[in-house]
Amino acid sequence: MTIVFGIPLSVLLGQLLLGLINGTFYALLSLGLAIIFGLLRIINFAHGAQYMLGAFAAVLGFNYLGVNYWVALVLAPLLVGALGMLIERGLLRRIAGEDHLYGLLLTFGLALIVEGAFVKLFGVSGSSYPMPEQLKGGFNLGFMFLPTYRAWVVLAALVVCLATWFMIERTRLGSYLRAGTENPKLMQAFGINMPLLITLTYGFGAALAAFAGVLAAPIYSVTPTMGANLLIVVFAVVVIGGMGSIMGAIVTGLAMGLIEGLTKVFYPEAANTVVFLVMVLVLLVRPAGLFGKEV
C-alpha cells in the first residue's frame, strides 16, 4: 500500500475526488453569483433560495405531476429563471440607482421570506428525490467506488460552466452585456435594449442556481434551508476568485472543493472553515481576489 505524508494513497485520492464533486457545486453556484454581480452589480443573497427552489421544483414535480429527472433538469431552471426575471423587473429595477447595500438587503429579505414559507409548508425534516435509473450503479476506480450519478454531476456542471464562460467572453451577446455594465446609456444609443438584457441576465443567474439544485436533489436531503447552509461558503468562493470574475468563480470553486477534501484528510476539524481562512489570506494579499481587477 502506497503511503503519502502518512496517509494511504487510496484515501487521499478518494477525498480529492469527493472534493472535486463538491467543488463543481461551488463552481456552478459561484458562477451564477458572479454573473449577477459582475454584469448587474447586484449582491444576490436570494441565490441560496433559488438553489433550494430548483431542488424543490424537481421533488414536487415528481411527487405530484410525475415529472422525471431529465425533464426537471430543464423545466426547474426555466421556472426559477422566470421567477428571477419577475423579481428583477418588479423589485430590483426600482432600486437600480441606489447603493449596492439596498440590493443586498432586498434579496436577503426575499430569501428569508421564501425559506420561511417553505419551512411552514414542508417542515425542516427534508425530502428525498429518486436517482434516475440510467445513472444508478458506479465504477470501481481501484482506490474507491465512484457512483455513476456523481460522475454525471461533475460532467454536467463543468459543461454548463464552460458553456456559460464561452457565451459571456466569446460571443456578441456577452460583449453587449459586458459593455452595458460599463456604459449602459451608450449601448442604448446603439439600439441595444439594456433593460431586457439585465432582466435576462438575472434570470439566467437564477436558472444556474436552480440547475445546481436539481443536480443536488438525488444526493442531498432537500430542505428549505439547504441553500442558506451553502450560500455563505459560495460567497467566500466568489470573493476569493474576484467579485464578478466568471473564470475566477469556476476555477476557485473547483479549487476550494479540492482544498476542502485535502483538509478532511490531514486536519478534519478545519474542513468547515478552511475556505474562510483562504478568503482572509487572499484578501490580505490581493483585495480584488485572485482573478478580480483592481479598481
Give an overview of the whole structure.
The chain is mostly helical and 295 residues long. The chain has one domain. Helices cover 71% and strands 3% of the residues. The protein is built from eleven helices and four strands; from the N terminus they run E-E-H-H-H-H-E-E-H-H-H-H-H-H-H. It has helices at residues 9-40, 47-65, 69-90, 100-122, 148-170, 172-182, 184-189, 194-216, 226-241, 246-266, 274-285; strands at 3-4, 7-8, 138-140, 145-147. The protein has a two-stranded antiparallel ribbon. Strands 3-4 form a two-stranded antiparallel ribbon. Helix 1 runs antiparallel to helix 8, helix 1 crosses helix 9 and helix 2 crosses helix 8 (194-216). The longest helix is centred in the first third of the chain and has 32 residues, at 9-40. It is globular. The model has no long low-confidence stretch (mean pLDDT 88).
Relevant terms:
295 residues; mainly alpha; two-stranded antiparallel ribbon; 11 helices; 3% strand
